[in-house]
Amino acid sequence: MQALLTDIAAVVGSGNVLTGDDVTQRRVDWMSGASCHAGAIVRPGNTDELAAVMRLCHAARQPVVTHGGLTGLVHGGEAAPDELVISLERMNAIESVDPIGSTLTVQAGTPLQKVQEIAAEHDLLFALDLGARGSCTIGGNIATNAGGVRVIRYGMMRQQVLGLEAVLADGSVVSSLNRMLKNNAGYDLKQLFIGSEGTLGIVTRAVLRLHPRMSSERTALVACPDFAGVSGLLAHLGRELGGSLGTFEVMWRNHYALLTEESGRNTPPLPPHWPYYAIVESLGNDDAANTAQLSAALESALEAGLIEDAVLAQSDTQRQGIWNIREDIEGLIQHLAPLFTFDVSLPIPDMPGYAAELERAVQQRWPQGRIVVFGHLGDGNLHVSVSVGDDEPATRRTVERIVYEPLAELGGSVSAEHGIGLEKRDYLTLSRTPEELALMRTLKRALDPLNLLNRDKVLALEE
Amino acid sequence: MQALLTDIAAVVGSGNVLTGDDVTQRRVDWMSGASCHAGAIVRPGNTDELAAVMRLCHAARQPVVTHGGLTGLVHGGEAAPDELVISLERMNAIESVDPIGSTLTVQAGTPLQKVQEIAAEHDLLFALDLGARGSCTIGGNIATNAGGVRVIRYGMMRQQVLGLEAVLADGSVVSSLNRMLKNNAGYDLKQLFIGSEGTLGIVTRAVLRLHPRMSSERTALVACPDFAGVSGLLAHLGRELGGSLGTFEVMWRNHYALLTEESGRNTPPLPPHWPYYAIVESLGNDDAANTAQLSAALESALEAGLIEDAVLAQSDTQRQGIWNIREDIEGLIQHLAPLFTFDVSLPIPDMPGYAAELERAVQQRWPQGRIVVFGHLGDGNLHVSVSVGDDEPATRRTVERIVYEPLAELGGSVSAEHGIGLEKRDYLTLSRTPEELALMRTLKRALDPLNLLNRDKVLALEE
C-alpha cells in the first residue's frame, strides 16, 4: 500500500493522506465509539483529485471505504487495515444557489444543516431534516437515502435530489448534474447512486431541490386512547390538513413515560398514562389560518374519540420541549444501556400487534428485558430499542431474529431509513427475494467488477 | 419465427397470438395513425405466461416490443417485421386495494383512468393525471415516467410507485412489490424500470401510492402582462398557497388566441390580447377556506402587478371551459397541420427568450411558419408545436435542430416527460454527457445482453 499512498499523496498533497494515530483517533461509529482501522485516510479536495485517486486505486486493485459525517447506524463506515478511507470532508462548498429555479448545487461533504441554513437565507426550504443534521453530510444523506421527520410531507432524500455527480470505481466521472424538475432523457442514472450506500460510486456533487419556505409551523402533542385512535388520527389529519401535515411522529408509552416521569429528564406536557402519544405539525404561510385549521382538526379528533388530550405549543420553548422527549436518544442510552436499536418499516395496522409480540418475546426470554418504541408512524417506520442486560454478539443475534423475522410475513422491511451496511446484511433475505438479490449483484458487478467500493457492505458479492 | 409462435401459442393460447390483418389493423401511433408491422402480437394473460414467453424468445434470440395503451409520442411502440409485440392488454386487473395503507396493487395493462376511479371509490386520490388517461396504461406510465398536470403538487409517476414486478429479458421475474413508504433494504430496483421505456424489463404489476382525496379543487384563469409576471406569480402562489398549489399551467398568447378567437373553437373567459395566460388550481379540504385563500392570493398578485386579470371558475362547466382551451390538441392539429410537436424542459427564466428565439428562427426560414407554446410551466416543461407547411423528414430534422440545440447550453432536456423512444434518440447527446450514455449502455448490457427488449429504443447499443 505504501507505493500507492506515495502516488496518492502526489495528487492530494501529503497533508491529506492520514496514517497512524491520525487514523485511529477517528471514530467510525458514534454509538459504540469504535475507532478507524483503515490503512490510511485520503482527503481529496475536488472531483478531479478523487477521480485521479480512484484511477490509482483501480490500477492497484485497492478497495476503498467512503466517509461522510459518520453518523450512520449500520457500520457502513467500518474499514479494515487493507482498505483506504476516502473522506469527503474537504469537499464541502456550496457551489451555487438558484433562487428562481429553487435549486442548490453543493459538494458532497457539506453538512445537512449548512444546506438548510443557506436555503433559509434565500427564503427557501431544504426539506430533509433529521437529528444528526449538524454532522451528517449531503453525500451521506444521498448514499443512504436518508429519511427523518419531514418524509410524510416532502419525501425522503431521493425526492430532494435533481442531479448528481459520481466517481465510479475505475475513476471515471459521471456528471449528471440535472437541474430540471422533469427530465426523461434516457435512464435516470442518479437513482443508482441514491440509497446504494456508496457501493456503486462515490457521490461528489449534487443539485438539490428547494421548496417554498413555510412561515408558520404549529406543533401539537396529543395522547391517544388506543392504536385505532393513532391510525384514525393520521387519516383524519391527512384529510383535514390536506397538504399541510408536516410531521406525524408517535411515541409508545414505554418511550414517553421513560423520558419524562420515570427518568425525570423532561417535563411531560401531558400526563404519561396514555398508551400512545403523537407529535403532529402543520405547515402553512398564514399563521392564523394554519393555527385555526390545526386547532379545528384536533377538536374534531377529540370529539370523534381519536384522541384523549392535546396541547398546542404556544412558543418555541414549548415546541422544543415536546421534541426533546422524542429526540432524547441520550436519555434512552443512559437509562437502557446496553441496548440494541432498530429501524424497521411495516404496515401501520400491524404495528401494535408487532410491538406487543416483540415485548412478549423479549420478556419471555429476559424477564427484566424492556423495549421502547417510537417512530415516523406516518411513513410506516418504527424505531425500536431493546434492552436485555448485555450486548454480547450472541445476544444481539437472538434479539435481531426476534425483531426482524416477523417482518417477512408482514411485508415489512429490515431497514426503513438507516440502510443495510454490515449490520443488516444477513437479514436482507427477509425483505428481498432471491431474484431481487441476484439483480442487485448484477448491478454491483456491472458498475464495480473489481469490488473496490465499500466492499461487502449491503451485499456480499460472492454467495 | 413460425416455430417460435407455435411454442408461444401453447403457452398463451392460439387466440392470443395475432398475425396478419389482426396486426396491421392496429395503429402504433395515435398522431400519425401508422399501423403495426410486427411479425405477430402476443397477449399473455399473466406474469407466468409472460415469463414463459420471454424464456422462449430468449432461447430463440427473438426481439420483442412491449405495448401498453399506445398513446406515446416518440415512436416507442414501433415494431419491425422481425420483432414480436408483447401486448399487456389482457393483464388489466386491479388486484387489491389497501385503504388504510393507501396503496393499490394493479396489473400493468390497467388504464390510468380506471386506477383513478377505483382510488376515488375509496375516497383516495391517485395523483397522476394527463390527457390520455382513458387509454394510457399504468405499465406505460411507469415505463415512461409519465408527468402531466399534477406534477407540481405530487411529482411524476416515479413518485407514485412503491413497488413493481418486472419480467427480464431472460424470462426471470423480479418481484419487488414493496408496499412500504420507506424501504432502504438494498438497492431500490424499481427505479431501474421506471422511465427506461421497456428497455430493461417488462413491468407486469405495480403497487401504487394513493393520497388523501381533496374535496375542494378551485380553478382560475389569469392573464399576465409579461413573463416576469408569470414567474413572479409562480413564486407568489408557492408561498401563499403553500402545499395547496395543485397546477400551474401556462399558455403563450399564440396558443390561447388560436384556440379561442382565431379558431372560434372555445369561448375566451378573458380577452386574448395578453402575452401569457396561466391556469392555476388550489387543492384543499375546506372549500370556503380554499376559495378564500386562492382569491386572496390572486388579489395580492393583482395588486403587485403580477397579473392583469383573473377569473375564478364558479362551476364545473366553467372549469372545463378553461381546461378545454389548454387541452384542445385536436384544434391545434386541425389549424396547424402539418405540424411537429415537442416536449422540452429548461430553466424557467430562460423560457421567454427561448420561445422568442425559436419563433424568430422558424420565421426566418419559413416566413409563414408558426409556433405555439404551452406547458407545465411550474415543472420547467414546455410543449412546443411548430408548423412550417410540410412534414417531410428533412424539414422535421431542420425544425428539430432549431428546437433542441439551444437546450444544451441552457442545461435543459430534449425530453421532459414524453421519453426518447426512436424519435429523440439522435438528440440524447444534447442533454446527456458521453459518460452518462456510457453508463446507460453498461446498464442495458448488464440487464439485456442480447438486446431483445425494445431494441434500439432510447439508445442504440453499438455506437
TrEMBL record, chains A, B:
For this UniProt record, give its keywords in alphabetical order, as a comma-separated list: FAD, Flavoprotein, Oxidoreductase
Source taxon at top rank: Bacteria
- CC cofactor: FAD
Key word Flavoprotein present: yes
Describe the family membership recorded for this protein in Swiss-Prot or TrEMBL: Belongs to the FAD-binding oxidoreductase/transferase type 4 family.
Q: Which Pfam families match?
A: FAD-oxidase_C (PF02913), FAD_binding_4 (PF01565)
According to the UniProt entry, where is the signal peptide? none
Organism phylogeny: Bacteria, Pseudomonadati, Pseudomonadota, Gammaproteobacteria, Oceanospirillales
Q: Provide the FAD-binding PCMH-type domain boundaries.
A: 34-213
State what protein this is by name: FAD-binding oxidoreductase
